[in-house]
Amino acid sequence: MVVDLKANELVLKAGDSNYFANEKSVDGKLILTNQRVYFKTKEDNNSHYNLEILPNQIQEILYFNTMKIFPNGLNIILKGGKHLKFKIGKRNSWGNVLNKIY
């Protein structure tokens, strides 16, 4: 799994994640850089789920529980109203850093 970083772009945080898209859970990696957020799938046949989120696209960051009890859900709400839901370890740490970049 390779992410093409832009000039002067540094990885700040990365972790295994699941992206919840259209009733499907897609395995991948959530990557936070000093310029954007990436979701990169683990399997090439799911590459259409790869995401690139710029800080100016983010409206709000919300937490949720997966399976109603596990506190590992992170919902990135975009200014257009789209919800991008991820399952990620240490979600509070991710949320704190994401709240600082937008």
Task: Give short descriptive properties of this protein.
single chain; 102 residues; mainly beta; PH-domain like; 7-stranded antiparallel sheet
Describe this structure in words.
It is a single chain. The protein has 102 residues and is mainly beta. The chain has one domain: Pleckstrin-homology domain (PH domain)/Phosphotyrosine-binding domain (PTB) (PH-domain like, Roll). It has one helix and seven strands. Strands 4-3-2-1-7-6-5 form a seven-stranded antiparallel beta sheet, with helices on one face. A hairpin with a 3-residue loop joins strand 5 (58-66) and strand 6. The longest helix has 11 residues, at 91-101. It starts with 10 loop residues before the first strand and ends with a helix. The model has no long low-confidence stretch (mean pLDDT 93).
Query: What is the H level of CATH, i.e. the homologous superfamily?
Result: Pleckstrin-homology domain (PH domain)/Phosphotyrosine-binding domain (PTB)
Order of helices and strands: EEEEEEEH
Estimate nothing, just give the exact number of structural domains. Answer: 1
Radius of gyration: 13 Å
Note the topology:
Blueprint: E1 11-21, E2 24-33, E3 37-41, E4 51-53, E5 58-66, E6 70-78, E7 83-88, H1 91-101
Antiparallel strand pairs: 1-2, 1-7, 2-3, 3-4, 5-6, 6-7
